[in-house]
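To the structural biology subgroup,

Please find below the input and predicted structure for PilZ domain-containing protein, which we are adding to the shared reference set this quarter. The sequence is reproduced verbatim from the submission form. If anyone notices a discrepancy with their own records, reply to this email rather than editing the shared folder directly, so we keep one authoritative version.
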Amino acid sequence: MLFKIPAYDAQTRRFLGLVQDITEGGVQLFGVKVDAESTKTLVIQASDYIKSSPLYLEVVCRWTRKENPQGYYVSGFEILRISEEAKKNLMKLIDFVTLG
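Predicted structure (tokenized):
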């Protein structure tokens, strides 16, 4: 099943990519280049998949690599801080993505 879950930088509102993988501890995005070790507040718009408001996660980019000649990147983020409400919605999203 293909998911198109967009993620944005909360401060700049810049599109960062589409969620490729998501766990309790981190998120992998396919999109634009993000500097490794940079911290961001990530906004994940998952309302097409679960009933929730956008998820706000404080993350740090642990790695990034160029994925293809078109200039797309894959980046891995560690979740540093998340509210209890966002954590509940994150778990719903993980269940939906893994169980369909």
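Summary notes: Residues 42 and 52 are 15 Å apart (CA to CA). The two ends are 8 Å apart (CA to CA).

Regards,
Lab coordination
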